[in-house]
Specification:
22 strands; two-stranded antiparallel sheet
Length: 366
């Protein structure tokens, strides 16, 4: 929780402003019932499973010191434990520039950057959950970092650069490799309620497991579109990059000629290993409509969702696809009811199996 201490100190030393300070509390709870069936590894169908749980319970505090300083502390309660989510302090030296430090989201993916309360779906999809030996695709998520953002006063454009602590241990010789994950993002507000984003980053990984000398950075880039205009609601991502997943490593050997000695022994040069990684490519979309029927119902949002992932373009049979649909009903500003069904189809080499899942969720927020 070192970022909490840093944020608190920053607020204490911030210069006084003309406006009064303000403290806000917020939170949300998602209670969910899920029916699911996942195919067995031998291709057979497993029985249906029923789960009922509190999928998310989150509590947060926001403190504003005038117009220039804002502090956010947000904690997630799940599985009998409490984990920090958003823990940061933001300072605006001038109106167009913001400096943020702490724990916050990496700047990539419209679906990932949008809050779950703003999206009609129950879950964002499988893209952020694909995992091999504890390694995930670099497609978003939170991290400890520092960020500088600039917003133009004359054009609908914003630019931000950030540096995050890697999710893996840093190599001992940090002078040879970048000891942080750098990110950059440009957003262009095409029209009112329509935003186009372009992101680029370098995500740290180990080229071979458990060897710090094989610390590397994999480039990743993405474009996205967010539309919240009139009845239309849509979030679309396209992301690609060097695949950091362990199974993607394809090692080839090059055998050079050996020299024969007079005693019949062979002197061979060392074998050279070549690690030629492929590229992952993913698309993800959530689209729907927001209708206001009145009569005590704030909004009805029918939606469809789709995700397609090629985990490595060099290999076959590692693709994963997922489609879904449902409806979200807002019963006022603080209460929401959702129904979401999704189907997953996975190739033989993929780290997930074919599955069907239906979810009913009741959410409350303040």
């Amino acid at each position: 929780m070192r970022w909490v201490a840093i944020a608190a100190i920053a607020v204490c030393v911030a210069p006084p402003t003309a406006r009064a300070d303000r403290l806000e509390l917020h939170g949300r709870v998602f209670a969910r019932q899920t029916a699911s069936r996942v195919d067995a590894t031998d291709g057979g169908a497993a029985p249906w499973r029923w789960d009922q749980d509190v999928a998310s319970a989150r509590f947060g505090v926001e403190y504003r010191a005038g117009r220039r300083v804002k502090l956010s502390l947000e904690v997630e309660f799940s599985d009998g434990d409490a984990r920090p989510k958003d823990v940061w302090v933001r300072w605006r030296p001038v109106r167009a520039v913001a400096v943020q430090a702490g724990r916050f989201k990496r700047p990539i993916s419209a679906v990932q950057l949008a809050g779950l309360w703003d999206l009609p779906v129950v879950e964002r999809g499988l893209l952020g959950d694909l995992e091999v030996s504890g390694v995930r695709l670099p497609v978003g998520g939170r991290g400890d970092g520092i960020r500088v953002a600039w917003t133009s006063a004359v054009m609908p454009v914003g630019v931000e650069v950030a540096a995050f602590a890697p999710d893996v241990s840093v190599a001992p010789d940090a002078s040879r490799h970048v000891p942080v994950d750098p990110w950059a993002r440009v957003e262009w507000r095409v029209a009112r309620g329509v935003t186009w984003g372009t992101s680029f980053g370098l995500a740290a990984f180990y080229d071979k497991p458990d060897r710090a000398v094989n610390y590397r950075h994999a480039p990743v880039a993405g474009v996205d579109l967010a539309v919240e205009r009139g009845l239309v609601r849509a979030w679309v991502d396209a992301i690609a990059g060097i695949d950091p997943l362990p199974f993607a490593l394809d090692v080839a050997t090059i055998d050079l000629p050996c020299a024969m000695g007079g005693d019949g022994s062979a002197t061979c040069p060392p074998v050279e290993l070549i690690a030629d990684r492929g590229v992952f490519a993913a698309v993800r979309a959530v689209a729907g409509a927001r209708v206001d029927p009145g009569r005590g119902v704030r909004a009805v949002m029918p939606f469809v969702s789709a995700t397609g992932v090629d985990l490595n373009t060099r290999f076959a049979d590692d693709e994963v696809g997922q489609v879904g649909g449902g409806v979200a009903v807002e019963l006022g500003r603080h209460l929401r009811w959702q129904v979401h069904a999704e189907w997953t189809v996975a190739a033989a080499r993929a780290p997930v199996r074919d599955a069907v899942r239906a979810m009913v969720q009741l959410g409350a927020a303040f």
